[in-house]
Amino acid sequence: MKVWDLHCDTLSELRYAEREGHPKDFAHNDLMLDLERMRRGDYLLQCMACYVCLDPEREKDPLVACLEEIDVFNRLLDRYADQVTAVRTPEDIRALRGSGRIGLMLTVEEGGVCRDSLGVLRDLYRLGVRMMTLTWNFRNGLAEPNFVQENRPNTEGGLTPRGVEFVREMERLRMIPDVSHLSDAGILDVLRYTTRPFAASHSNARGCCPHVRNLTDEMLHAMGERGCLIGLNYCPSFLDANPDPARRRSRISDMARQVRYLIDHAGEDCIALGSDFDGIDGDLEIAGAQDLPRLAEGLQREGIPERVVEKLFSGNAERFFTENL
User: Which of 128, 119, 7 is nearest to 72 (CA)?
Assistant: First the structure.
């Protein structure tokens, strides 16, 4: 069953490895995602996030970090041109299934890399970025996140005036705003100040597991009505409410429970996959791209109809991006 995954952090891991003098090969490596694993998982497309941490002890210049990850992405395209292809347009998507290659779509995880500049945003679009989170876990000039460390929803700090300008410009460009990591107030602001569908690339349902990064029922209903896309995150803390973090597990049964909840509150046309591979760890039943056939089989054993699993795995994402890029 073909896979379209909305989010992974593999580009940043490849960049970190290069900086440390121990480069990793994208064909085969010790990460959660590489070409060999993607072939075994039957991937159609992987959204590749340029994840950037705004902590100055991690990155002296976030924009440079983002551009270096885009460079990693472009070198992958060049080196493995017979196996992967960049996807930027609806025409690229339509050509993908018959190409025999895996699609790679460039995204950004941390709107702060734009330095509040609409010009930088437009340049990222020209470089191929087609989806961007407005925040990661830090305040920036666009918005505030939900604070994972405090595990409480941020219901007051939403989009800044510049953030409103950004989401409107993203809509004009046909770059998808991604509300994963955004505060509760910020997600409601995106609903208020935009008219087109947007995405939560790696967020689950809070009513099913009370993690602050998961979406409330109010958000799910509104996003379903808007025709948005919600990527199922495989992280144990987003699936398992065990009060002891060390004992939280990510199991197919937990994923099935989330899928049913998301369908009940947002509709079956909104669900997609958002693994967060190479950005999560812990006790994972689905521990890498090679395990996706097990996930498809397991969800069906848990009572999710094959037709719905196909929509979750690639159908909804393929339609969403074809209609909204």
Answer: 128
Reduce the DSSP state of residue 284 to 3 states and report it. strand
CA distance 17 to 36: 19
Return all residues near 171 (Cβ < 8 A) that are at least 6 apart.
Answer: 177, 194, 195, 196
Say how many Å lie between the first and final Cα of the chain, rounded: 24
Helix ranges, 32-146 (H):
35-41, 62-79, 90-96, 118-126
Cβ burial of 150 (10 Å; 0-12, 13-18, 19+) is exposed
Residues 162/119, Cβ–Cβ less than 8 Å = no
CB distance 256 to 295 below 8 Å: no
Helix (H) or strand (E) holding 272: strand 271-273
Between CA 157 and CA 178 the distance in angstroms is 17
Bridge partners for 182 per DSSP: 145
* Per-residue pLDDT tens over the stretch 67-83: 999 999 999 999 999 99
* Residue appearing with tokens 């939900």: 146
Q: Containing H/E element for 225?
A: helix 217-226
Over the stretch 48-107, which tens digit does the pLDDT of each residue have?
999 999 999 999 999 999 999 999 999 999 999 999 999 999 999 999 999 999 999 999
Q: List Cα–Cα distances, 146 to 80, 169, 186, 198, in angstroms.
A: 37, 23, 9, 18
Are the C-beta atoms of 227 and 269 separated by less than 8 Å? Answer: yes
pLDDT digit string, tens, across residues 270-295: 999 999 999 999 999 999 999 999 99
